[in-house]
Amino acid sequence: MSERYLLGLVGTGIGASLTPAMQEREGAAHGLRVQYRILDADELGLGADDLPQLLTWAERLGYDGLNITHPFKQAVIPLLDELSDDADDLGAVNTVVLRDGRRLGRNTDWSGYARALRTALPDAVRDRVVLVGAGGAGAAVGYGLLDLGAAHVAVVDTDTERAEACAIRLAKRYGDDRVSVASDLEAALADAGGVVNATPVGMHGHPGSAVPVGLLRPDLWVSDVVYFPLETELVRAARERGCRVVPGGGMAVGQAVDAFGHFTGRVADADRIAAHFREL
Ligand code: NAD
Description:
alpha/beta; Rossmann fold; binds nicotinamide-adenine-dinucleotide; single chain; 2 domains; 12 strands; 6-stranded mixed beta sheet
C-alpha cells in the first residue's frame, strides 16, 4: 500500500490557499496518498492560546506535518522540540514536521524565495537589492537574498523600527556591511540592481504599489511577494517598462517545494509544482 501523509495548514484567512492542492498533487505524482487539510483558526474559533492544544491534537489525530502561517509563525516556536538554525535566525517557523513524537520547526519562506529568484534570474543573485517591507515576508526575502550572495540589501519600511529590527536580524547572520536601513527609496534604488516588494500593497483589497512605478527603470529587476493577484500593479508596470520580473507565485511554489521535502523526505519536482500552481 502507498505511504500516507496527513498534513494541514494552520492560520487565519486561509480558505483560498493553494497549498493543499499543490501538496496533494505532488504527493500523487510520487505515488503517495497525501491528504492536506485547511485548519483555519478563525473558522475553528481558535487563537494563539489554543496552539498548544492544536498541536497536541494534530499529533493525536495522526498528522505528519503542518504549515503555519499568519499569525502563528512566531507563537509556535516555544511549542517545538527542535528548530533549524535558519528558523531560529528568522524567529519564524512556517513548517512543522511531526515525527516520532517530536516537533521539528523549519522555515521554507526564505528558502522558497531564494529558490524562486535563483531559478528565474540566476545572474542577478549577487546584485545590490532594495527590500521594501520588513515584516515576516520581508525578513525571509532578505535572508534568501543574502544567502544567495546579494552584495547588499537596503531595507525600507514606513515603520522605521520594523526596518531597523529586520536589518539587525539580517546583519547578525550576514554582517553589518551587507545590510542597511534606507529612508529614501529613490536614493536607495539609484545604485540597486533589483527591488522586492514584501509589503501587502498590491494584494486584493490593498491596491497600489509600495514602489512608485515612476522609479522603475528597464535595468532594474522587480520582484513581488504578493500573489493574490499574481499580476500586481507593480509587476504589470515593471513588465511595461521592460524590467525582468519575479512575481509572488515563485515564492509560494518554492516554499511548497521545500515543505514537501521536509514532510516526505522526497525531492519535489519544482517545475511540476509550478505547473500545478499555474493551473489552480
Ligand atoms: P507584515 O504585516 O508582517 O509586514 C508588512 C510590512 O510592510 C510592515 O512592516 C509594514 O510597515 C510595511 N509596509 C506596508 N506598506 C508599506 C509601504 N507602502 N512602504 C513600505 N513599507 C510598507 O506582513 P507579512 O507577513 O510580511 O506579509 C507581507 C505580504 O507578503 C503579504 O501580502 C503576504 O500575503 C505576502 N506573503 C507572500 C508569500 C509567498 O509565498 N509569496 C509568503 C509570505 C507572505
